[in-house]
UniProtKB/TrEMBL annotation:
Residues 354-476 form the TMEM62 Ig-like domain. It comes from the Eukaryota. The chain crosses the membrane at residues 498-516, 552-576, 654-673. GO terms for molecular function: hydrolase activity. Residues 55-271 form the Calcineurin-like phosphoesterase domain. Residues 1-24 form the signal peptide. It comes from Sesamum angustifolium. Residues 21-37 have a biased composition (Low complexity). Residues 483-658 form the TMEM62 C-terminal domain. This is Metallophosphoesterase. The keyword Transmembrane applies. Pfam families: Ig_TMM62 (PF24384), Metallophos (PF00149), TMEM62_C (PF24394).
Length: 685
C-alpha cells in the first residue's frame, strides 16, 4: 500500500496547481493604461458656509436584465434623494452593470444592461436638478468582464457611461472644489485590467506603474502652493486588500501614504461581508508599509501624542479607507461631508424605500473614524470658533420645524441624557447646516466612546427622524472599529501578497497548463490558465505575459483546499484502514504470511491486541463506509466546480481541461477499487 499512497498523492499534486511552461519568462500582471492624459476640472462653490462641502457616493449598482428592480428602485429613490441633498459631486465607484447570466456562471458584457444604465442615469440627472458634469462613474471589474480592448466593440462602459460621454477617457480624472478657505481635491481612477477577462478570474485591481505615476501627479497638483489648505480624497472600485502591486512592487498604499491622503473611498465587497468594512492605514516610515500581510483590526492605534499639542510630537502618516457597501442588495448610499477640513459621513439604507429626511453630524467628529491630525480639537488648524458649536447637516424634502442636539452619557451602563439643546440654521447657508453652542471642555474624558451624540429632526409634516448614537472624543482618543472574521478576511488580508506564500506551502513540480478557456466576451482566441495567471496568444510579445494574477486564486485555492487536499487525506486514510483490516483478518484466521512473520507474531493470536470496540468498527467497515461518503462529497464538489468553469469559459471537459476534470475522480475511484480488491483477495485465502 505504500506504493499506492505515493502514486496517488503524486498524481493529485501534479494536477493541483497549473504551472506555466518552464521555458518562458513572466512580465507585468497588467499592461500600461491607454496613454490618455488625465482630465482635471475645478468647481467654484459659492455661498456659505465658507468651508463646508458634501458629496454623495454610490457603488456596486449591478444593473441586470435578470433583476430589473435594481435599476427601477435606483431611478425612483436616488433621483429624488439627490434633489434635496444637492451634493457638489456624485461618485459612482464601479460595478455599474452586473454582466452575469441568470445562473451566475457566465460573466461577460450585456449591452442591454448598459442601455438601461444610460437611460436610468439620464433620468436621475434630470430629477436631481444637478449638472451631468457633477457625476463621476468609474469602471468596476463587472464592467470589464470579457472586454479584450478598451475602446473596442465590447467596451460598453466607454460608450454608455457618463465619464465616457463627457470624454473623460483617461484612467485617472480629478476634480477640485474650491471654497473660500481651501481646495478639496478628488482623484478617481480605474485600476481594472487593461484586457478584462471573464469572471470569476477578474477580481482584483491591477494598478500599473504608469497608473500610479498618474495618480501621484494628480495628488500633487496643488503642492506648489504650500500656503493653500488642501484636503485630498481618492476614489476607486477596489479595496486595497484586493489591489495588486505593480511590476516594480509599488502599491496604492505607498502613493496614498506619501501624499497624506485624507480618505480613500471604494466599493467592490458589498455589505454581506459586514458593516465595518473600514480600515485605518498608518505608517511612521514610508518604507515597507505596503509589505504588511495582515492587519488585525480596522481602527487606529491610540497615539501618545493624541492629547498633546507639542511641536516635537512624531507625525503619523495615515489615511482612512472606507468601503461603502452596495446598491445591489443593500440599497446603500453614502453622504460624505468635509467641514473645516474634517471628514464625516453617513451611510443610508434605502431597503425600506425613499427617505424624506437625512441627518449628517459634522462636529464633533465620530471618534471611530477620526484621523490623528484631527483628534485633539485644541491643536487643530481649523478656526477655534468652530469648536464652540455642535454642527449637523440636515437634508429634507419638507421644511424643517425643529432640530435638537442630544448628548448621552453611557458610562453608567445605560444612556443618560446630559445635554439637550435646540439647533438653529446657520444664516446664509447654501445647505441646511444647523448649529448649537456647547461647552466642549465639559466633555473631556479618557474614554473615546463614553459620550454619544444624536440629532433629532421634526419636519412640517409631523415626521420625526433621529440620527444614530455617535461616539465622540474631545480628548483625541480614537474608538475601536471591531472586525468580525469575514471583515478581517476581506479587509485585513493583503491577498496579492499572500497568494504565492499559500501556494508554496506545498512543494510541487512544474506541469502543463490547467485548462484552455474563452476569457473574452466573443471572437478572441482561447487562453490557457496557470497558477500565475492567464496567457493569451493575442499578446505579440517575445515573452509570455501572465495576466489576471492573483485573480486566478479564486479558482486555484478553492480547488486546492476543498478538493485536492481532502482527496489526499481520504486516500491516506483509505490506505491506513486497508492495512488495519488486513491485520484484523489475519489475526482472526491465525494465518501468517512471509511479510508479517517478523513483526506480527504477537498480533497473530486472535483478539490479542484488538479491543471489542475496534473489532466492531473493523468488522462493520464503518471507517471505509464513511470514507466512501467523503469521496462522493469531494467528487460532487469537484463536479460542481467543473460545471461552473464549463459555463464561465465555454469549455469542453474532454477537450479543454481533461486533467482537471477527470484526474481526481479517477484517482479516488482507483484507490477505492484497489483497496476493495485487496480485501477480497485476503478473504478468499
Amino acid at each position: 500500500m505504500g506504493n499506492l499512497i505515493g502514486i496517488t498523492i503524486l498524481l493529485l499534486l501534479l494536477i493541483a496547481i497549473p504551472f506555466p511552461p518552464s521555458s518562458s519568462s513572466s512580465s507585468s500582471s497588467a499592461t500600461s493604461s491607454s496613454g490618455n492624459s488625465s482630465k482635471r476640472e475645478v468647481i467654484e462653490v459659492g455661498g456659505g458656509p465658507d468651508d463646508l462641502v458634501w458629496v454623495v457616493q454610490l457603488s456596486d449598482l449591478h444593473f441586470s436584465v435578470h433583476h430589473p428592480e435594481r435599476a427601477l428602485e435606483f431611478q425612483e429613490i436616488v433621483g429624488f434623494a439627490l434633489s434635496f441633498i444637492k451634493p457638489s459631486l456624485v461618485l459612482l465607484t464601479g460595478d455599474l452593470t452586473d454582466g452575469k447570466s441568470k445562473d451566475l456562471l457566465i460573466m461577460k458584457q450585456d449591452e442591454d444592461e448598459w442601455i438601461e444604465y444610460q437611460k436610468v442615469m439620464q433620468d436621475v440627472v434630470q430629477r436631481s436638478g444637478l449638472d451631468r458634469s457633477a457625476f463621476y462613474d468609474i469602471r468596476g471589474n463587472h464592467d470589464n468582464f470579457g472586454v479584450p480592448v478598451v475602446g473596442g466593440s465590447y467596451d460598453f462602459y466607454s460608450k454608455y457611461s457618463i465619464n465616457g460621454q463627457l470624454q473623460r477617457t483617461g484612467k485617472v480624472n480629478s476634480v477640485t472644489i474650491q471654497t473660500s478657505k481651501r481646495k478639496l481635491l478628488f482623484v478617481g481612477f480605474d485600476s481594472t485590467m487593461s484586457s478584462g477577462f471573464r469572471g470569476p478570474t477578474n477580481l482584483f485591481g491591477h494598478p500599473t506603474d504608469e497608473l500610479l505615476a498618474e495618480i501621484n501627479s494628480e495628488l500633487s497638483q496643488w503642492d506648489s502652493q504650500p500656503t493653500q489648505l488642501v484636503t485630498k480624497v481618492s476614489f476607486g472600485h477596489f479595496p486595497l486588500s484586493f489591489s495588486a502591486a505593480s511590476k516594480s512592487g509599488k502599491t496604492l498604499q505607498d502613493i496614498f501614504i506619501k501624499h497624506s491622503l485624507d480618505a480613500y473611498l471604494c466599493g467592490h465587497l458589498h455589505t454581506k461581508f459586514g458593516k465595518n468594512l473600514k480600515r485605518h492605514h498608518h505608517s511612521s516610515h514610508h518604507a515597507s508599509y505596503s509589505k504588511q500581510l495582515f492587519q488585525l483590526n480596522g481602527h487606529q492605534t491610540p497615539s501618545g501624542n493624541a492629547s498633546t499639542c507639542s511641536k516635537d510630537a512624531t507625525s503619523i502618516d495615515e489615511f482612512w479607507e472606507w468601503e461603502m457597501g452596495d446598491w445591489r442588495k443593500s440599497r446603500a448610499m453614502r453622504i460624505l461631508a468635509i467641514d473645516g477640513g474634517h471628514i464625516s459621513f453617513v451611510d443610508i439604507n434605502f431597503k425600506l424605500g425613499a427617505k424624506e429626511t437625512i441627518i449628517l453630524p459634522t462636529f464633533p467628529l465620530d471618534s471611530r473614524f477620526t484621523s490623528a491630525s484631527s483628534q485633539n480639537y485644541k491643536c487643530g488648524s481649523t478656526d477655534p470658533s468652530s469648536y464652540e458649536f455642535i454642527r449637523a447637516l440636515v437634508f429634507s424634502a419638507s421644511p424643517i420645524v425643529s432640530v435638537l442636539a442630544k448628548i448621552y452619557d453611557s458610562s453608567p451602563g445605560n444612556l443618560i441624557l446630559v445635554l439637550e439643546t435646540e439647533m438653529k440654521k446657520l444664516a446664509g447657508s447654501h445647505g441646511n447646516l444647523y448649529i448649537a453652542p456647547w461647552n466642549i471642555q465639559a466633555f473631556e474624558d479618557p474614554s473615546p466612546d463614553r459620550f454619544l451624540l444624536q440629532i433629532e429632526v421634526s419636519d412640517i409634516m409631523g415626521r420625526s427622524t433621529a440620527s444614530e448614537h455617535r461616539p465622540f472624543s474631545v480628548s483625541g482618543i480614537p474608538a475601536k472599529v471591531p472586525w468580525g472574521w469575514k471583515e478581517f478576511f476581506v479587509m485585513g488580508c493583503q491577498w496579492d501578497s499572500l497568494y504565492y506564500p499559500i501556494l508554496w506551502l506545498l512543494v510541487l513540480p512544474r506541469v502543463m497548463p490547467w485548462f484552455y478557456g474563452q476569457v473574452f466576451t466573443e471572437g478572441r482566441e482561447r487562453a490557457y490558465m496557470t497558477y500565475r495567471g492567464w496567457v493569451s496568444s493575442f499578446n505579440n510579445l517575445g515573452t509570455l505575459e501572465f495576466l489576471g494574477s492573483p485573480d486566478v486564486m479564486v479558482v486555484v485555492l478553492p480547488h486546492l483546499f476543498f478538493v485536492v487536499l481532502p482527496a489526499i487525506m481520504t486516500i491516506m486514510v483509505l490506505a491506513a484502514e486497508n492495512g488495519m483490516y488486513r491485520d484484523y483478518l489475519l489475526s482472526l484466521s491465525s494465518k501468517k504470511k512471509d511479510d508479517y512473520d517478523g513483526q506480527n507474531k504477537e498480533s497473530a493470536l486472535p483478539g490479542s491486541s484488538i479491543s471489542k470496540t475496534s473489532q466492531i468498527i473493523l468488522c462493520g467497515r464503518w471507517i471505509r463506509k464513511l470514507l466512501l461518503m467523503v469521496s462522493l462529497a469531494v467528487s460532487w464538489k469537484h463536479f460542481k466546480n467543473c460545471v461552473a468553469l464549463m459555463k464561465a469559459y465555454e469549455m469542453n471537459p474532454i477537450i479543454h481541461f481533461p486533467f482537471y476534470s477527470f484526474a481526481i475522480p479517477l484517482v479516488l475511484a482507483y484507490t477505492i477499487w484497489k483497496t476493495g480488491k485487496n480485501f477480497n483477495s485476503i478473504t478468499k485465502k
